[in-house]
Amino acid sequence: MSADNLTPSDFRRAIRHSVRRRIAEGRIASGEDIAALRRFAGLTQAGFAEALGISVHTLRNWEQDRRAPEGPALALLRIAARHPGILKENLALPV
Predict the structure, then answer these.
(1) DSSP letters for 27-69
(2) Which domains does the chain have, with CATH numbers?
(3) What is the pLDDT of residues 22-81, one digit of tens each?
(4) CA-to-CA dists, residue 4 to 7, 10, 11, 87, 89, angstroms
(5) What number of other Cβ atoms are within 10 A of residue 28's Cβ?
(6) 30 within 8 A of 77, measured Cβ to Cβ
(7) Between 20 and 30 A from 32 (CA), which of 3, 13, 73, 74?
């Protein structure tokens, strides 16, 4: 997709390459990084949480800096930063 085809919505969802790379390396600076990744993927909190297999409550705690993702959750966020489309694919799979 060229810059000429980007909509205002695409620009609002954009995430800095340096931030995306940092998240992909597992170095999440704050809950804003997680919120930016979620917006970049074009998902609501409920959709993002479902795609990761976590509760919305957990996601909100991360985004509001009350908790930080660890272990498998951090690994999933790293994958999501590299391949955000995989989140929507995961939501489309039958349960």
Answers:
(1) ---SHHHHHHHHHHHT--HHHHHHHHT--HHHHHHHHTTSS--
(2) 3-90 (1.10.260.40)
(3) 999 999 999 999 999 999 999 999 999 999 999 999 999 999 999 999 999 999 999 999
(4) 8, 11, 12, 26, 26
(5) 20
(6) no
(7) 3
